[in-house]
Design a protein that fits this description.
Elements: H1 6-20, E1 33-38, H2 49-67, E2 71-73, H3 83-92, H4 96-111, H5 129-144, E3 148-158, E4 163-165, E5 170-171, E6 174-175, E7 183-192, H6 198-203, H7 213-223, E8 225-233, E9 242-246, E10 257-260, H8 265-273, H9 275-285, H10 287-296, E11 301-310, E12 313-323, E13 334-337, H11 343-352, H12 378-387, H13 397-410, E14 413-419, E15 424-425, E16 427-428, E17 438-441, E18 445-448, H14 476-479, E19 485-487, E20 494-497, E21 501-502, H15 504-507, H16 511-514, H17 526-532, E22 537-541, H18 547-561, E23 576-579, E24 582-590, E25 596-599, E26 604-607, E27 610-613, E28 621-627, H19 638-645, H20 647-655, E29 664-666, H21 668-693, H22 701-719, H23 723-739
Parallel strand pairs: 1-2, 1-22, 10-12, 22-23, 24-29
Antiparallel strand pairs: 3-4, 3-7, 5-6, 7-15, 8-9, 8-14, 10-13, 11-12, 16-21, 17-18, 17-20, 19-20, 24-25, 24-28, 26-27
Helix pairs in contact: 2-20, 3-4, 8-9, 19-20, 20-21, 22-23
The protein binds one RNA strand through helix 7, strand 9, strand 13, helix 11 and helix 21.
Length: 740
RNA sequence: GCGGGCGUGGUGGAAUGGUAGACACAUGGCACUUAAAAUGCCUGGGCCGAAAGGCCGUGCCGGUUCGAAUCCGGCCGCCCGCACCA
């Protein structure tokens, strides 16, 4: 009797599925549809075992729904723009386009043998002009609908690479690649008006019952709704009043100064006349300094010499300070500080000798809190009592609400709702991204490109017949001799294309919609979108809990507003599942100098309850279950696993043991166990087939009962993403079957 | 600092108010074999016991309940997200 031969049977069946087009999805209004989608991969060059786990989960769901009779859409594509392609070009001299498409070919070749139930006819990459051209069309529609706008914004600027850096690319105040001190620079950038939808994006989270509560909560915190009081401090010198926002108006009697951001208009006006102030602001602007101050929590302040009147007592004057910890893009960029209720304000007041007033003093206990530095004068208490007479000065929300109501009644303030969510800046000074389809004309200004001219495609060479040189800092589109030359779409005069490209998060914010009609010559096809949307089950990593998922929710709404999606698609992902990582033990020894040396799993022998180097027999320290990392050498290559055991074993193992939302540790023993089980099934099937040939029939009542129990539990386990439990049920049934 | 989650054998884990530890891994044993590999079977939380069986046991302390790994309160530990957000 032979053993299960994956190399023979897997390609055979995969070829048969392919020939029959069994996974090809077509609109069929007579059948109920089911759209399952895994977050599409970045074409880094190799698939890793985490991809295998992700796509296997989607495959299980897709095949389950196939077998339940649904018309299943299960597509795959490539999130193909982004910096790694430019970095690779910089490092090895190739072209980002070639690098990307070569990687896609390599990864597709790795994925096909996994035997996933994917409709490959719908495949696309976001760097295909056919895709990003439609994205440009969307951008133009968004622009027309007022969903995109330009404004000046402070960005992280790398003066060596001459580019904007994302926050994640700023490390200790320095550019991650150039190592140059990052500057904060003001540039004109394009923004999506996501903040206009804050309220809707927040309240709609309530309806996402099939999303992990954790993700909903993370989005809720990110959107960050707060309720507070907005009011203005009048200046004693008669200048422009300073508007502030506070969530704690009840602490107003504890105010000891008014703080403004270094980017506040008043701070700038002062800096124009005062070099000390200008120097202070420059110091705050230095990325490094701010980062460090942030780390150590050091508060820096500058006394402007300006005074304002307390809104409840014109005779009470508060000094205005510029403070490094106040953010211009939250609230009004100005605050009043109440050191008795805010640690930050207290630190600041201590450092600069400003008064600390204990507002609690004013209620019923005249003793100031022990750690406050300042004993309030009696008149403070009198002021409090006078101004809040008739108010029920309760603690907490009641006091806040009462103070807001009072401010509105007395006409000096307004209760407002504030969101933390800011507009989404999408401009990038990068080559390898979707060009922003606008033209800058001397006479007409910023003019949208005509749709007929789309796609605005990236140039392949440098315009002089040579490959683009990515080793020169800055955006290659900027120094291209003629790519940006174009007639103004409005007046026809010579004009310049915008050379900024779009953030790659744009590409992934609507790909799920494009999959419903990937070859349409509009961004979506109404009929296909109406049939296939929404995604019924979306599967991916928790690392996308905020940005990608929030941006996609915004894009779906924007696409509805511009007629590209049906009204029912505002929440594009009905159900979301976030899967855990595949981890692996790290095998580590120390060299003579005590530095850690890492070893590949293949070089390590596990025996006698320990781990030893095959080459030398030296004992190895095992660090269990760590995130796979090439530098730690704790990686397994899916190709090796498939070569050794076949795809089904790899697929079976990544779903065994651990619940799918938790991390699973890849072990050789576990892979062996999966291999043994697959063989056991194969042997049993072989034996059963032989018995049937000899006239046997399966009619045992107990067996039938066990079978149906198993079918029931496995069904429930798949529905609830309990793949590990489903596998346990199948193991159990195999045990029953073996005994009968 | 704010928000959230988790804690069960040597290991991954199962059980969502009703027989704790399903299923698997590791370990030990047996069968088959000249032998090994492969395969199959048994064992598999702790203590007492020859066994039958008994007692204890889900981080710690308390509570609710006929009944708690599960619900509630407090503590301890670990993990994650956000963060000068006013």
């Amino acid at each position: 009797m032979s053993r299960y031969n994956a190399k023979e049977s897997e390609p055979k069946w995969q070829a048969a599925w392919e020939a029959a087009g069994v996974f090809q999805a077509d609109v069929d209004p007579t059948r109920e549809k089911y759209y399952v989608l895994e977050m599409f991969p970045y074409p880094s060059g190799r698939i890793h075992i985490g991809h295998v786990r992700n796509y296997t989960m989607g495959d299980v769901v897709a095949r389950y729904k196939f077998s339940k009779g649904f018309n299943v859409l299960h597509p795959m594509g490539w999130d193909a723009f982004g910096m790694p392609a430019e970095n690779a070009a910089m490092a090895s001299g190739g072209h980002p386009k070639d690098w990307t498409y070569d990687n896609i070919d390599a990864m597709r070749a790795q994925m096909r043998p996994l035997g996933l139930s994917i409709d490959w006819t719908r495949e696309f990459a976001t760097c295909d002009p056919e895709y990003y051209g439609q994205q440009q069309a969307l951008f133009l529609d968004f622009l027309e609908a007022g969903l995109v706008y330009r404004k000046n914004a402070v960005v992280n600027w790398d003066p060596v690479d001459m580019t904007v850096l994302a926050n994640e690319q700023v490390i200790d105040g320095k550019g991650w690649r150039s190592g140059a001190e990052v500057e904060r620079r003001e540039l004109t950038q394009w923004f999506f008006k996501i903040s206009d939808m804050s309220e809707d994006l927040l309240t709609a989270l309530d309806g996402l019952d099939d999303w992990p509560a954790k993700v909903r909560l993370m989005q809720e915190n990110w959107i960050g709704k707060s309720r507070g009081l907005r009011f203005a401090f009048a200046r004693t010198d008669g200048g422009e009043p300073i508007e502030v926002y506070t969530t704690r108006p009840d602490t107003l009697m504890g105010a000891s100064f008014v703080g403004i951001s270094p980017d506040h208009p008043l701070a700038r006006a002062i800096a124009d006349k005062n070099t000390d102030a200008a120097n202070f602001i420059a110091q705050c602007r230095q990325g490094g300094t701010t980062e460090e101050a942030l780390e150590t929590g050091e508060k820096l302040g500058f006394d402007t010499g300006v005074f304002v009147q307390h809104p409840l007592d014109p005779d009470w004057h508060l000094p205005v300070w510029i403070a490094n910890f106040i953010l211009m893009d939250y609230g009004t960029g100005a605050i009043f500080a109440c050191p008795a209720h805010d640690q930050r304000d207290l630190d600041f007041c201590r450092k600069y000798g400003l008064p600390v007033i204990d507002t609690f003093f004013a209620t019923d206990d005249p003793t100031p809190a022990a750690d406050t530095a300042f004993v309030p004068p009696k008149e403070q208490a009198v002021r409090w009592v006078n101004h809040f007479a008739g108010l029920d000065i309760a603690t907490g929300q009641e006091a806040i609400d009462a103070t807001i109501a009072r401010a509105e009644a007395d006409g000096w303030g307004t209760g407002v709702t504030q969101f933390r969510l800011r507009d989404w800046g999408l401009s990038r000074q990068r080559y390898w991204g979707c060009p922003i389809p606008v033209v800058h004309c001397d006479t007409c200004g910023v003019v949208p490109e005509k749709k007929a001219n789309l796609p605005i495609a990236l140039p392949y060479d440098d315009g002089n017949g040579k490959p683009i040189d990515f080793s020169i800092p800055g955006n290659p589109l900027d120094r291209h001799p003629n790519w940006c030359d174009t007639p103004c779409p409005a007046c026809g005069a010579p004009a310049k294309r915008e050379t900024d490209t779009m953030d790659t998060f744009v590409d992934s914010s609507w790909y799920y919609a494009r999959f419903t009609a990937p070859r349409a010559n509009t961004p979506t096809d109404a009929k296909a979108a109406a049939y296939w949307m929404n995604v019924d089950q979306y599967i991916g990593g928790i690392e996308h809990a905020i940005l990608h998922l929030l941006y996609s929710r915004f894009f779906a709404r924007a696409m509805i507003a511009t007629g590209h999606l049906p009204d029912t698609a505002a929440e594009p992902f009905n159900a979301l599942f976030t899967q855990g990582m595949v981890t692996h033990a790290i095998y580590q020894t120390n060299d003579a100098a005590g530095r850690a040396v890492y070893h590949y799993p293949d070089d390590v022998d596990l025996r006698d309850g320990g781990a030893f180097l095959r080459a030398t027999g030296a004992e190895v320290t095992v660090v269990p279950s760590a995130k796979m990392s090439k530098s730690k050498k704790n990686v397994v290559d899916p190709d090796d696993i498939i070569d050794q055991y076949g795809a089904d074993v790899a697929r079976w193992f990544v779903l065994s043991d651990s619940p799918p939302d938790r991390d699973v540790e890849w072990t050789a023993a576990g892979a062996d166990a999966a291999w043994r089980f697959i063989n056991r099934i194969w042997t049993m099937a072989y034996n059963i087939a032989r018995m049937e040939d000899q006239g046997a029939t399966a009619a045992d009542a107990a067996l039938r009962q066990a079978l149906h129990k198993t079918i029931h539990s496995v069904t429930q386990n798949i529905e609830s993403f309990g793949f590990n439990s489903a596998i346990a049920q199948i193991h159990s049934f195999a045990n029953v079957l073996a005994k009968s």
